[in-house]
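Case study 2.
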Amino acid sequence: RILFVHVLHNIASPILVQATFIFAYAVLAEAGLSFLGVGVPPEWPTWGTMIASGQQFVHQALWLVLFPGLAIVLSALSLQMVGDGLRDLLDPKLRKSL
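Prediction:
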């Protein structure tokens, strides 16, 4: 009973927060590997392959690199913010002071 009520209740929030941080790092790692050409197969559209294929046209069409890059940054930043917000919301020490 102690294990389920107290221990699992207190470790659920750090595991959830860590999962959001790991998912943000996975998005960045996949985009970086796809940019280098060692990620998923080239026929799958990913943000990294979009940046790599638009790199040769950056002087004529900046948006080919800009928008996938912004999508990577915004998705990783939003996942980090969600994880930070969940940490603040689910932390038992902060919950007692609020």
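Residues 82 and 91 are 14 Å apart (CA to CA).
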